[in-house]
Amino acid sequence: MQRALQAYGEVLRLVRRLPKDTRPYYAKYARENFVNYREVDANDDTALKELLSRTYTHSLWVLNKYSVDEGAAEKLKVICGA
């Protein structure tokens, strides 16, 4: 669960790099996803690994969409094990 919380915090930090008018949308989107997936069994390594992988992949997609350097997600990459 600790890695999931770290990933969520890092995603919110990355949201701050997005254009100002898009930040509320992506912050809300991240929160909703975190809440929706909080029921994932912390002992199910496969499910957690898949979820963290999707977190990283989607974050890169959003950063690329707004031309933010992917290097900004380096810490998220480490947290997610990507």
Automatic annotation (TrEMBL):
Domain of life according to the entry: Eukaryota
Transmembrane parts of this sequence: none
Record-annotated Complex 1 LYR protein domain positions: 2-56
Pfam families per the UniProt record, alphabetical: Complex1_LYR
Entry-linked InterPro entries: Complex1_LYR_dom (IPR008011), Complex1_LYR_LYRM9 (IPR045291)
Family in the record: Belongs to the complex I LYR family. LYRM9 subfamily.
Full protein name: Complex 1 LYR protein domain-containing protein
Lineage: Eukaryota, Viridiplantae, Streptophyta, Embryophyta, Tracheophyta
